[in-house]
Amino acid sequence: MLTAGLVLLSLSGNPAAASIISIADSPPRFDIAASCRDVGKSGVNVGRPASACQGDEERARAQLTARWGEFTPSARTTCVESASFGGPPSYVEVLTCLEMKKP
């Protein structure tokens, strides 16, 4: 009983727990310009213009908005959080992750 109370107390004061709930409610809002700013500077995207990146991100955002309800809340939370690791978040990464998690 004491353990359950401590868990609830720790969750109620945890801002990350509140943000997880909001992540699953609606599609994320990312700064596409920031996501595409360094395209072409790394070895991964050599020769790819930022405009191509921005187009891909816009299309992925539109698909996420249209299909958000198809994905489970836990998958949405996991994919949005993982898209932020290692640099600016990407709609393409979120969409790819969500599609891979579909049964």
UniProtKB/TrEMBL annotation:
<feature type="signal peptide">
    <location>
        <begin position="1"/>
        <end position="17"/>
    </location>
</feature>
<keyword id="KW-0732">Signal</keyword>
<protein>
    <recommendedName>
        <fullName>Secreted protein</fullName>
    </recommendedName>
</protein>
